[in-house]
Amino acid sequence: MIISAGLILTTREEVIDVNQSTTTSIKFATGIFGVLFICGSVDAADHPAFQPVKELFAAMSKQDGKAMKATSTEDFQLLEDGEDWTMQKLIAAVQPKGKPYERKNFFCQIRARQKGSVAWVSYWNKAEILRESRRTTVVWLESAVMVREEGRWKVQLLHSTRLEPGKYPQDIEWVQFKA
Questions:
Q1: Which of 54, 99, 133, 148 is surrounded by the most beta carbons within 10 Å?
Q2: Residues 6 or more apart in contact with residue 2 via CB below 8 angstroms
Q3: What pLDDT tens digit does each residue of the chain (179 aa) get?
Q4: Distance separating alpha carbons of residues 179 and 177, to the nearest angstrom
Q5: Quick check: 96 and 83 in contact, CB under 8 A?
Q6: What pLDDT, on a 0 to 100 scale, did the predictor assign at position 1?
Q7: CATH 3.10.450.50, applies to 48-177
Q8: Which residues touch 56 (CB under 8 Å, ≥6 apart)?
Q9: What is the pLDDT of residue 44?
Q10: 88-102 b/e with 16+ CB inside 10 Å = b?
Q11: Is the dihedral of CA 118, 63, 110, 84 positive or negative?
């Protein structure tokens, strides 16, 4: 629906003059605000292509390399703080190395776009890590590119920028992901 100079172009491609009458204008305005409200709500929901990103981090929390690989394409690439990582390097990095830990993952999608079988998502990522009675919180600004393979979204590329404590918006609405 496009609104321009008092005209509405509906999805049926008909032009309506909203200035015909006050009653008509009020009805259309009410309808328009209702549609905008509904669209805003839909836009705020996480894009389905974001799901494998969340599943990847859940698998990382469990140090489950097989599950991590299942979320991603064979040619997965992670750009991690200026370094080029493979899935194997990521799997090695999340292993406890003799110091078990618990990790909780929180996300807030910023934007998502899709064109056919390719989608990208930008998002805030927060991890709360408990290791040896010490809790650490780490926040990243990230983006991911997903491709649809055999009807399922898979992560092909992640780009991650770790943020200094307090150097991110404080009004982020974090949602914990539990797998």
A1: 54
A2: 8, 9
A3: 444 344 333 333 334 444 444 444 444 444 433 333 333 333 458 999 999 999 999 999 999 999 999 999 999 999 998 999 999 999 999 998 888 999 999 999 999 999 999 999 999 999 999 999 999 999 999 999 999 999 999 999 999 999 999 999 999 999 999 87
A4: 6
A5: no
A6: 41
A7: yes
A8: 68, 71, 72, 155, 158
A9: 52
A10: eebbeebeeeeeeee
A11: negative
CA separation, residue 4 to residues 17, 18, 19, 32, 39 (Å) = 10, 10, 12, 13, 18
Token look-up 């899935």 returns 87
Q: Mapping DSSP to helix (H, G, I), strand (E, B) and coil, where does residue 117 land?
A: coil
Place of tokens 């509904």: 38
Burial class (CB in 10 A: 0-12, 13-18, 19+), 70: middle
Residue 20 pLDDT:
44
* Structural contact between residues 73 and 147, judged by C-beta atoms closer than 8 angstroms: yes
Read off the tokens for 65.
Answer: 């390399």
Rounded CA-CA distance 150/119 in Å is 15
